[in-house]
């Protein structure tokens, strides 16, 4: 478990030291009745303490040192953690929570995860006598922990919608000597399922464009999650970043047939070398200094189709010479291009107007009556 990421996920929930929440308390009360235990608690593991958000049966609750927390073991294992009789356990017989209040003899805890999947706390059922849980009771504990996670996710929804709205807005492109960079994303409805990202790294530029299936809030939230995944540890190799994003998306939406086409690339600034992974997108290419253009496509399935299991993503390489352009767009742009020669249309506009004015033209085309989808485009020129 990556403790730094886990702690960051907990901090992002903004739940520590907040007042009681009836939506969570009702789950706690129900857990007590269904599991027939005197004590139930929803605990979160902070840097050096255990903090209790919801509980029944503990009386006045104070923070507990992390070293004195049993729930920290549930979080660390990221799985069900159970002690049927603490007095018979060499690891817990002398534990402060066993020898003193609340005098734990039986403990069953299930991890509670942040929306991104990191274990941040535990829902625990405690008894003052040794006992066993049946498979049915363990299933109930798991389901109740999932309910807690759902409630926590609901708390985050407003923030995520705001993040998705910001994601769909244009943002400034990095200024890099020797390169002219322009990009824009226009939502077909209020929120976009497209996004682009241009991240400067030491000696290189990381370029991402992705298109979540559909449009509106659902696609925007999925796009926001994929963007967050790909921006995490931006120095990761391209294939590793895409494999991680594919796995997360597949785990979260395997039964929803949700997928995302994406291009994730790295441009080495000194040489113009391009490394690129294409996940079912097929809309990245280089416009040569003459009248030529060449596609950059690797044969991979979209994110969310579990390509991480089927096989590693494949990398394609090229080189951006002075005067050449790296271009990538979402398929929404195809609706408003010359249907007889869409790529020729793009090439002519870029050669005539240059990157910045070409992107301004794309923003105008997004208002065309023929537009039926979000439209996103990136143009990067290596200046002569």
From TrEMBL:
Give the domain of life.
Bacteria
Q: InterPro entries, per this entry?
A: GAF, GAF-like_dom_sf, PPM-type-like_dom_sf, PPM-type_phosphatase-like_dom
Residues in coiled coil = none
Q: Which residues form the PPM-type phosphatase domain?
A: 195-382
**Which PANTHER family did the record assign?**
GAF DOMAIN-CONTAINING PROTEIN, SLR1143 PROTEIN
Entry protein name: PPM-type phosphatase domain-containing protein
Q: Organism, per UniProt? A: Corynebacterium guangdongense
């Amino acid at each position: 478990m990556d403790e730094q990421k886990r702690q960051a996920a907990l901090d992002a929930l903004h739940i520590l030291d907040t007042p009681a929440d009836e939506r969570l308390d009702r789950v706690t009360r129900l857990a007590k009745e269904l599991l027939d235990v005197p004590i139930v608690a929803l605990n979160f593991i902070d840097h050096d303490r255990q903090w209790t958000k919801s509980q029944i049966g503990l009386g006045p609750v104070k923070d507990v040192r992390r070293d004195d927390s049993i729930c920290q073991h549930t979080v660390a294992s990221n799985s069900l953690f159970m002690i049927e009789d603490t007095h018979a356990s060499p690891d817990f017989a002398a534990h402060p929570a066993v020898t003193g209040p609340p005098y734990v003899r039986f403990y069953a805890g299930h991890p509670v995860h942040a929306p991104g999947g990191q274990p941040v706390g535990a829902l625990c059922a405690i008894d003052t006598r040794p006992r066993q849980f049946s498979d049915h009771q363990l299933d109930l504990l798991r389901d109740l922990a999932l309910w807690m996670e759902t409630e926590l996710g609901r708390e985050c929804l407003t923030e995520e919608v705001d993040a998705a709205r910001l994601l769909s807005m244009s943002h400034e492109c990095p200024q890099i000597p020797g390169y002219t960079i322009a990009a824009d994303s226009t939502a077909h409805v209020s929120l976009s399922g497209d996004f682009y990202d241009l991240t400067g790294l030491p000696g290189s530029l990381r370029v991402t464009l992705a298109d979540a299936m559909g449009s509106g809030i659902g696609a925007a939230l999925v796009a926001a999650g994929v963007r967050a995944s790909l921006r995490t540890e931006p120095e990761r190799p391209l294939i590793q970043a895409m494999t991680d994003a594919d796995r997360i998306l597949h785990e979260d939406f395997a039964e929803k047939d949700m997928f995302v086409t994406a291009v994730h690339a790295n441009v080495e600034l000194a040489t113009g070398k391009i490394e690129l992974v294409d996940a079912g997108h097929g809309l990245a290419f280089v416009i040569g200094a003459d009248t030529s253009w060449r596609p950059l496509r690797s044969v991979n399935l979209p994110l969310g189709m579990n390509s991480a299991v089927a096989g590693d993503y494949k990398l394609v390489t090229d080189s951006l010479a002075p005067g050449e352009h790296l271009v990538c767009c979402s398929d929404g742009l195809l609706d408003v291009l010359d249907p007889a020669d869409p790529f020729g249309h793009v090439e002519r506009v870029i050669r005539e107007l240059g990157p910045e004015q070409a992107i301004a033209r794309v923003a105008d085309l997004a208002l065309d009556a023929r537009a039926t989808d979000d439209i996103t485009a990136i143009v990067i020129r290596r200046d002569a």
